[in-house]
Amino acid sequence: MRVHLVHAHPEADSFVAAMRDRAVAAFRARGDEVGVSDLYAMGFDPLLKAADFGERRDPGHLVYALEQRHGWETRTLAPDILAEVDKVLAADVLGFTFPVFWFGVPAILKGWIERVFLSGPFYGGRRIYGRGGLAGKRAFAAFSLGGRPGMFGPGSIHGELEQGMLRHFFQGTLGYVGLSVHRPFAAYHVPYLDAAAREALLDGLEDYLRTLDDQPTFRLPDLADFDERLEPRRR
Questions:
Q1: Euclidean distance between CA atoms 5 and 88, whole angstroms
Q2: CATH of the domain at 112
Q3: Which of 10, 18, 84, 132 is the most exposed place for a label (fewest CB within 10 A)?
Q4: pTM metric for this prediction
Q5: Residue 199: what are its φ and ψ, rounded to 5°?
Q6: DSSP state at residue 164
Q7: What are 70-87's pLDDT values in tens digits?
Q8: Strand partners, 94
């Protein structure tokens, strides 16, 4: 199995970096092929810009999604975008390691998604969710946050992680392009834990990844239930 990890943390000696390294080791121990995009180390540019397209469909006005389609068809996208797209398309499993910032993913990861998840090959029209361009592939996330476990979940002050503050990532991003999304591994209260507690979390992550094939996935929309609303039949 081919796994590609997208890592987003500015500190090379962080706990999230340790999660990335443990993930790489766990997958390789299973015999999987593993690649990593370390966005900060790469100096990945998260900004959308006209220079992302070597040949423009419409030189006079930038509609980013339409230019993505044209750039993919002509292979004239910026080299850094093409390199990341090719990594995603070659992978069977796409993984993400990051800290939760302001109820979401870090800005550099958001920019990676916006530049790399191309309109056309990844999604478009009715080609979303189970019909999306990445259907048949899987995704997972392992992230850290400062809050305690009791601060998240039904009836808690912050609500459920997966169905609340990160729903846009799990459903509106990963699921939207067709990925089957495993429920994530969350490392709570990390800045306040001692070394032994952090090591226990890393052991838990290793167990999670060793059994990834058996980890539950989110229930995402079934397009068959929405066909009428997506494109009403003519009568």
A1: 9
A2: 3.40.50.360
A3: 10
A4: 0.90
A5: -65, -40
A6: I
A7: 999 999 999 999 999 999
A8: 4, 139
